[in-house]
Amino acid sequence: MSKVKLPYLLLLPGFLFLFTFFILPIANLAQTSTQTPIADGDTGQYEQTLRFSNYLDAFTENQEQFARSFVFALCATVLALAISYPLAYAIAFKAGKLKNFLLVLVVAPFFVSFLLRTVAWKQILGEEGFIVPSLRTFGIISESTTLTSTSFAVIMGMTYNFLPFMTLPLYASLERIDPRTMEASGDLYANGITTFRKVTLPLSMPGVVAGTLLTFIPAAGDYVNAAILGSPNTRMIGNVIESRYFKIVDYPTAAALSFTLMVAILILVTLYIRKAGTEELV
Amino acid sequence: MSAHVKQKDASIPTIPIKARLSRWFGRNLIRIYAVFGFTYLFIPVAYTFAFSFNDSGKSNLVWKGFTFDNWKNPCGAPEVCTALGNSIKIGLLATIFSTILGTMIAFAIGRYAFKGRSSSNLLIFLPMATPEIVLGASLLSLFLVFQINPGFWPTVIAHVMFCISFVVVTVKARIASLDPRLEQAAMDLYANELETFRKVTLPLVAPGIAGAALLAFSLSFDDFIITNFNSGTLKTFPEFVYTSAARGIPAQANVIGSAMFFLALIIVIAGQFVGKRVKVAK
């Protein structure tokens, strides 16, 4: 076996697999997206007519859900960053011997099934949970206000469910920072805030970029949180794609929506990585 | 002289209070914040655990009394254990295949410089940057084109597909952190390439592979979106929770969720303990 061929041989089985079950399906998805129903065919039967206006129809019909998906995903990402950064910072620099234990604690909740946790939130935030009655007692929310079936609940659920994807990369990049760089900044008369702004934050940027991407991408395509914690008024693009597939059997529209979502995310990700200037991800 | 000292003494209480206050904030604000963060993380876990002891009958929505019955009879509710069994089988198969394929790719990319290396990295990154709903929907369309009915094996294939990238990234990170001098030393001691790989490289990379396998299993076990598209009538544990969410989930599901939580906690802590002992032994 020659040395030049070895890496290709190692790649071959895995890439063959990814080609068949990732590239080919995406190509097929693109192909489905321009089909139209067969005249007098059964439901679910389509033929290729290269109807590109499927995209325009699908987009104009679901603009609202598209916009909501990106706004919700953005809110969840910002909230997750706000919660995770101090948490990751505390674990990396303030935890001492408890470091590894706390890191396990961050991941541990995620071994309770994703669905169970989301349903648990629904019940905690629901009428019989302990939060709504106590907020009412203190007069923070009115008698008629509910927490479930709101945008708040959906965003909160997404923030919660994707939190480790934010915390772990942040921790990884914070942990790599040499504490002496911060001491040096202090020795040069920078106060805590300046040290953070000029030393710690820039050094942790790869973690911020990785974490925000790993949160934003699944959040934008998610439909589970919206289905369990939301209402028909908080439907996201994921919910539309899911119902187009399973309830309406409208494969071309579902494919056009999926493809649009994927391309939109890829464009956003590329712009973001360029702007944030990190190549560590790829 | 003494007056000077006195003046300095008098000024001590004013400046240090401010300094002490800011230092206190610097030191403790983040700890207080971390406590809140962990509380947020553990609310739904505590809820799920508490309600696994609920004497609930069929719908586990309201607290009705304490009982051990659900823990004594975790398969008491219909379908729970069938769904759990499906998830475990799919998880194990997906873990085995994705770990093998992903580790091979990781070695190729992490160890060799070859033409097409950066596009290989891109191919690994793409499935992670694609929303789950697009992966699930596109794979389903492909299966439908080839008239393969969704079910057990299509689900396994789907899981292997999305786990591979995570395995590659994890193992690659471990390979990158290896000290190349260890392998050079083995070669200097007349080990041939295969022996060096078997006796030096592989044992050093093994913890990374184990971590990747654990990650793959938990990703597969917890997946809902991709599974929902490709499982057909087969029900995994997350699908079981989703479909029974409307009527109320049986307490047995909480038992299984809680048991998984403690099991994972034990495995991770034991893993760290073993890791420490290996380090000490060296």
From TrEMBL, chain B:
Locations listed in the record: Cell membrane
Listed GO CC annotations: plasma membrane
Keyword match Nucleus: no
Signal peptide: none
Membrane in keyword set: yes
PROSITE patterns: ABC_TM1 (PS50928)
InterPro entries xref list: Bact_Polyamine_Transport, MetI-like, MetI-like_sf
GO BP of this protein: transmembrane transport
SUPFAM superfamilies: MetI-like
Membrane-spanning parts: 30-53, 90-110, 122-146, 152-171, 200-221, 255-275
Keywords on record: Cell membrane, Membrane, Transmembrane, Transmembrane helix, Transport
Gene3D superfamilies: MetI-like (1.10.3720.10)
Pfam families per UniProt: BPD_transp_1
Bilayer topology term: Multi-pass membrane protein
ABC transmembrane type-1 domain boundaries: 84-274
PANTHER family according to UniProt: PUTRESCINE TRANSPORT SYSTEM PERMEASE PROTEIN POTI
Family, per entry: Belongs to the binding-protein-dependent transport system permease family. CysTW subfamily.
Name this polypeptide is given: ABC transporter permease
Organism whose genome encodes this protein: Actinobacteria bacterium BACL15 MAG-120619-bin91
